[in-house]
Each structure stands twice: as structure tokens, then as C-alpha cells.
Amino acid sequence: MTTTGSRQLRWSATEAEASPGAKLRTLLSGPEPALLMGAHDGLSARIAAESGFSGLWASGFCISTALGVRDSDEASWTDLLGMIARVVEAAGLPVLVDGDTGYGNFNTARLFTAHAERIGAAGVCLEDKVFPKMNSFVGDAHVLAPIGEFCGKITACREALSNPDFMVVARVEALIAGAGMAEALRRAEAYRQAGADAIFIHSRQPTIKEIAEFAGKWEGRLPLVIAPTTYHSTPMAEFAELGISGVIWANQSMRAAVTAMRQTCRSLLTEGPEDVEPAIASLNEVFTLMGYQKLAADEERYAKLHSDWGNS
Ligand code: SPV
Ligand code: MG
To answer: Whole-model pTM?
Structure first.
């Protein structure tokens, strides 16, 4: 992969032919942490790609929100996969899929994983809580799954894959559940031995402290992925120093959309369209983003291509 400008990453010809899983592995093995942008639909995926992100996180929280439901397994996994397919298709980037707890047992987890691979995702991330899970930032009722059972899920997912490059990421929720550092490390090691390709260590502290402690004790046994939603003020250099492989900006796009849509709806009612218009994308901006010009060019080309046969 090449770096052009600040964080603009582009694929070489050889890399472009690699499987989505291989691309994600390449991203996560770079000298600096890879940035994965949260996406919740085709539009947010396109905007992330256009902005220069090289990989995406198909966020369960954000897709649930976009579907109008809560991030507590209220959306069915087939609903989620429908939207994930849009994310994959729209961006053309490697997508790490938030698979929550795998929606039940080893069997539902491996079916979900195999489906995610078929629709072109690059990897799936499974979290070690019980179904139905609750978003990690909500309340304190986060029940951890038995370690052996979760290890079975990881192994079953690995064995369900067609291409071994597809990544199975194990998400450790011990710090979220208040189970402590030793338990987080014990679980991460068990998941490594069960076949996980990377560990997502999650924290909801306002600082990097507990993630730094985990990373120090983990000693690089597998790549580490984090989502610094609450410790967002940590400088990127610190993540790099800790040897973090991937940083997920999980929900910022969805939250930005919430703010913008709210402001627009309220302003339309209270102030009227004249106030709203300067602050929103023009129609042409949307048409350009979505490639309407390309469609018009294609239409012209196909109309001409066999025109010598006539049109009757
Ligand atoms: C998500 O984006 O759905 C996640 C990450 O699981 S978080 O919401 O930060 O827990
Ligand atoms: Mg989630």
C-alpha cells in the first residue's frame, strides 16, 4: 500500500486483486495504526471512502440506529447483513463487520460469518457477551459469555470460511463488564489459542490508561484493535507507541448525521427553508457523490454501441 498525502492510502495493482480479508490484514500490519471508519449504510460508506479512509467498520450500533432500533440485538442478523452488503458494495474498501455476539451459539455465529464472507466483507468481529447484548456504553448489565463457549464460536467461525484470509476478530468485553485486567488478558489469550486473528480490546474509560496497561501486558501476541469513542482525545502517536494495529472511529458519522438531521428538521419548522438551504448539500453535490454523470455517459455509450443495427 502507498501513502499519498497525510493519511490517503491507495492500493497498488497487485493489492487491488487481493481478497478483502487479505487487504484488511495488510491494513492492520502497517507501521502505523490503520483507521477504520464506522459506516451504517451505503451513503456513509461512500463518504468515508471519498474522504480517504482505507477500511471500514460496519457498526452494529450505527446500523441499528439507522434502522430505527436499539443496539441490543433488536435488528435481525439478516436485516443487518442486508445493510452490511450495501456498505461493502458502496465503498469498495475492506469492511470489518461488527458481528455482536454471533446471534446465539456457535452455529448462528458461523452462519453469520460465512454470510458476511459471501457478501464481500473482510472480517467479522465477535464479542464475548451473552445474547441479547447491550451496547457497551449503556448501563452496567454486561454479562460475559463462558470462555470455552466463546472459544468454540471462534473456532467454528474460522472453520466455516472459504478463504482463510478473512479475519475473525475476538472482542474482549471484560473491561466493560468490570471483570478486571487479569480476566481481560486471560480471555484474550484463550481467544488467540482458539484461532482469533486479532483482539478488539474495548474500554469506556475517558483515558487510554487501561488500554495502555492491556497493550503493555499483551506484548503483541496478536494485533490489537480499539475503538476510542470515550478516550478520543488521546493523540494518535500514543496509539502507535502502544503497538495498536487498528483504530475504529465507530459511530462519529452516525452521530454527525443525527445532529445534522435534527437541526434541519427543527430549522425547517421554526425558520423555514431559506435558513436551511445554505447548510445542506446541494442536489449536484449528491449527484456527483453518487456518480450520476457516469450513468449518463454509460447510457450514451450503450445507445451508440450497436446503433448500426437500428432501433426498430
Ligand atoms: C459498534 O459500533 O456497534 C460497536 C462499537 O460495537 S461501540 O459502540 O463503541 O461499542
Ligand atoms: Mg456493536
So the answer is: 0.94
